[in-house]
Design goal:
The protein has about 625 residues and is α+β, with helices and mostly antiparallel strands. Helix content is about 55%, strand content about 10%. Helix 18 packs antiparallel against helix 19.
């Protein structure tokens, strides 16, 4: 593909291409004209045939033949390549005919399934109930039409039979992700669910998301699994309808859920897309970076889980922002990615419906990723105590050491030094020390699983020996470093011991003392705190807590997956499809969680070594 771009670029006459829409006059080696991107009376727009580029000295718009078509005709890079290749007479590398035919068939399966869901929303009693539910959420009929919402009937094989009637095989339905299969047979993947089509940039349905209509359904949201057409980590929901506004405003807003995005569009905030349950994946971010926009704003719900997710995802994106695609780039990515956390108890859907102006203001006032992370570190630090100040400075110094541009770094140095009550020169020394440390090859961090064997004996002293070791390890670390509780990406239900769960909720509420705890909880807290001192020194307690909590999360997902598989083995026919999809979803969650652990415990060390070589 890169070879195709280069060949087409060499053969395209950019002066002729731009000249079809802008009156150009030769001025030396370049051609000048009135800029099409802003209103002006004196020409400041020029096209350079030797460099094959255009540039406006008035508004700063610039690019080549590809970006010209992308901006003028609202095309994707691949679409612009096809148009220009045809114009230049360049034959692009083509896929095998059978691969193209396979893609066409799967698109038709999804199109047929979408029609089935749309008709069920309009023509069945339960479908009308789903439409009434949409009305209670303030979703207008024209919005339902715009986003193609539908309903999957509570029928075991309704879509399966409809697809067969239309000439599609079971295998094609499975490959498209709208059917599921167990040793008991093939069934509809979605049943009694409000259906949301997920579309590609051409508006074609490539997958579906289904919202449960009953509280007893196993998964509230269920998505199509990855297929030939659909990769969840690379797809942004509503990108097809948001793309034009994103280009026009040079800003993209990322929300988590389908209905968050739908409500925003209905409220007139048209540059919003959804990451479909995750904060923002590297692949999704790079897709937006390819549009060459100025800002990507990630909006998180105003609950504790949303704030924890924001920091974790922000930290995961830092290496990406410094190593854009194949090679190093400047960390202008810090200025490109912004974060806003919504008011407590609110999500984008709520604000878009009740206070759209307030939501727009929060988007406009979003903090840069670097500014946001510094603020989160400060929240976890006790700046009224010397140890808290030291930990704050050391963690921020490590963060700022990854910003190579001194012009961009210096304002943050002054800001952080003032907050910590230190001389800025001391912080600069810390940053230099962090840079030297990063430049030296470092051994990979010890795996937490190995760490557990070292501390098992100490943890046996904690009351409640029947409690799983991993739970006690996490809580011992948290009792020693309570200011790091935000790094424990756990739900209280991940802790099976009710006493440890109560202590975790106590820390989540911002409490740092045990004086107001019941006597038995205070005793457990004291034992954990005492035991924590025997665990030895943690160089990075926040990271230790993050990894330990991720391992605990993996354990819990394994337990739940085993329970669901046991239920599936005993299930009656009517319950098989729902349980099968739940098992599949838990398996996917487990794989993702194990991947996060692996990245934290192994790849982090490998990456540091490679960067220092």
């Amino acid at each position: 593909m890169p070879g195709d771009f280069d060949t087409v670029k060499e053969r395209i006459d950019i002066v002729a291409l731009v000249g079809e829409r802008v009156a150009l006059k030769k001025a030396g080696k370049v051609y000048k004209g009135l800029c099409p991107f802003h209103i002006e009376k004196t020409p400041s727009f020029q096209v350079d045939p030797e460099r094959r580029t255009y540039h406006c000295f008035g508004c700063g718009q610039h690019g080549d033949a590809f970006t010209w078509l992308e901006k003028m005709d609202n095309l994707e890079p691949v679409e612009a390549l096809k148009v220009l290749a045809e114009r230049a007479g360049v034959e692009l590398a083509r896929r095998a005919p059978e691969e193209r035919e396979r893609e066409t068939r799967l698109l038709k399966v999804n199109e047929t399934a979408h029609f089935y869901f749309r008709q069920a929303l309009r023509g069945t009693e339960k479908g009308k109930a789903a439409a009434a539910y949409l009305a209670t959420r303030g979703i207008a009929p024209e919005t339902i039409e715009k986003f193609g919402l539908g309903y999957a009937p509570d029928i075991f094989n309704g879509l399966l039979g409809y697809l067969k009637k239309k000439g599609f095989s079971e295998e094609e339905g499975l490959a498209a992700g709208v059917l599921t299969q167990t040793d008991r047979g093939t069934f509809d993947r979605f049943r009694d669910r409000l259906m949301v089509p997920i579309r590609d940039t051409k508006g074609r349905a490539i997958a579906f998301g289904g919202r449960a209509m009953r509280p007893d359904q196993q998964a509230k949201y269920l998505n199509t699994t990855n297929t030939l057409l659909f990769n969840k980590s690379e797809t942004l929901y509503a990108f097809d309808v948001a793309r034009s506004a994103i280009r026009g405003e040079s800003v993209a807003v990322i929300v988590e859920g389908y209905f968050d995005a739908i409500a925003c569009h209905q409220a007139g905030i048209a540059n919003v897309v959804a990451s479909m349950g995750t904060a923002l994946t590297p692949e999704q971010y790079l897709r937006l970076q390819d549009m060459k926009i100025e800002r990507v704003v990630v909006a998180f719900d105003g609950d504790a889980a949303g704030q924890r997710s924001a920091e974790r995802r922000g930290r995961d994106l830092l290496p990406l922002l410094q190593r854009h695609r194949a090679g190093q780039v400047s960390t202008r990515g810090y200025a490109t990615l912004y974060v806003t956390v919504l008011p407590e108890g609110k999500d984008p859907d709520d604000l878009a419906r009740s206070e759209p102006a307030r939501l727009r203001g929060l988007i406009t006032d979003a903090a840069s990723l670097l500014e946001f992370l510094i603020a989160k570190i400060q929240e976890r630090s006790r700046l009224d105590r010397p140890e808290g100040q030291i930990r704050f400075v050391e963690e921020v110094a490590e963060l700022l050491a990854r910003e190579p541009d001194p012009v961009r770094r210096d304002p943050y140095v002054t800001l952080v030094a003032n907050r910590a009550g230190l001389d800025p020169s001391l912080l600069r020394e810390r940053i230099q020390g962090a840079e030297r440390a990063a430049s030296r090859a470092a051994p990979a961090p010890a795996r937490p699983a190995d760490r557990l064997s070292e501390v098992a004996a100490a943890l046996e002293k904690v009351p409640g020996k029947q409690t799983p070791l991993q739970e006690r390890y996490v809580m011992a670390l948290l009792m020693r470093f309570p200011e790091e509780v935000a790094r424990a990406d756990l739900d209280p239900t991940d802790l099976s011991d009710p006493d440890l769960r109560a202590l975790f909720e106590h820390l989540q509420a911002g409490e740092r003392t045990s004086s107001d705890l019941p006597a038995h909880l205070a005793a457990i807290a004291a034992a954990l705190s005492a035991t924590a001192q025997e665990l030895g020194q943690e160089n990075d307690p926040g990271q230790a807590i993050e990894i330990a909590s991720q391992l605990l999360r993996v354990q819990r997902l394994r337990d739940r997956l085993g329970e669901k598989r046991a239920l599936l083995a005993r299930a009656a026919d009517g319950d098989v499809a729902e349980l099968a999809t739940e098992v599949e979803q838990l398996a996917n969650e487990l794989a993702a969680a194990m991947g996060r652990v692996e990245r934290r415990t192994v790849l982090h060390g490998d990456t540091e070594r490679k960067e220092s070589e």
